Amino acid sequence: MAVLVLDRAAERRSRKVNVGDPLSRPSTRDRGQESASPLRGSGVRRRPRVWKTVQPPEDVRVTLPPSIRWREVEVPRHEALSVPGYVVRIDLDRPGYRGVYGWQVCYPGAPRKFFSDTAGRGDRRIERHPRESLAEATEYLARIYQGRPSRLRRAESSRKKEPTGIVGVRRVRRFRRDRRTECCYVAIAPPRAGMKFKMLWVGTAKTATEERWAEVLERARVIRSRLVAEAKKDLNR
């Protein structure tokens, strides 16, 4: 009695592919490039979420710097409002309790403050329009605003092997390709993205004296101060 052995893989490749039949689908190896996702390996990246900026409304009672961006926020049961940065909307519905509705100012370095849509207490509670509480939050933001907060380091990193006394400046020792000569540099880290990394030549291990190190570190201090001033200027534009 002859036994017929069927090659199911060859059978699936030979017959017409039917999407509805799971047994007729070719394997990943057979499909080749067809198995890859259209966004994977094709160089196409997902589009990041863009924060849509809008112009501040004309009825704003305070003047905020142009560095603060405005956006539209959908308020439940109300129309969309133009809201400045560092101001967030809070709508909390608590079954059986009175909800929390209002605006909270979250500016780094200052205490957070909440401005409720409800004014008064007890029987004198008055429900206000969210635009009125937003105006109070905007006025508070204008009083405490001191420019866009920078994330620049204010102290040297504790992991720095050779402290230089300058934030963003460190000593670098590297060997050349011949592995015989050790070169000494002073590296200046850029304070923000988009700036170039700078390296200042000091000398070799034999010629890099303490006076030479001090001279180059002083040049690095001046360059780093200039880069920080440029970064802060671009930050508040």
Describe it.
With 237 residues, the chain is of the alpha+beta class. Helices cover 22% and strands 21% of the residues. It has four helices and ten strands; from the N terminus they run ααβββββββαβββα. It has helices at 8-14, 28-31, 130-144, 210-235, and strands at 70-73, 81-84, 87-92, 100-105, 113-116, 118-119, 126-127, 169-175, 182-188, 198-204. The chain has a three-stranded antiparallel β-sheet with strand order 3-4-5, with helices on one face. A hairpin with a 7-residue loop joins β1 (70-73) and β2 (81-84). It is elongated. The model is unreliable at 1-6 and 16-49 (pLDDT under 50).
Shape: elongated
Protein structure class: alpha+beta
Q: Profile the largest sheet.
A: 3 strands, antiparallel
Mean pLDDT: 76
**Radius of gyration over all CA atoms, rounded:** 32 Å
Short description:
This protein has 237 residues and is an alpha+beta fold.
Topology:
Blueprint: H1 8-14, H2 28-31, E1 70-73, E2 81-84, E3 87-92, E4 100-105, E5 113-116, E6 118-119, E7 126-127, H3 130-144, E8 169-175, E9 182-188, E10 198-204, H4 210-235
Antiparallel strand pairs: 1-2, 3-4, 4-5, 6-7, 8-9, 9-10
Key phrases:
single chain, 237 residues, alpha+beta, 3-stranded antiparallel β-sheet, 4 helices, 10 strands, 22% helix
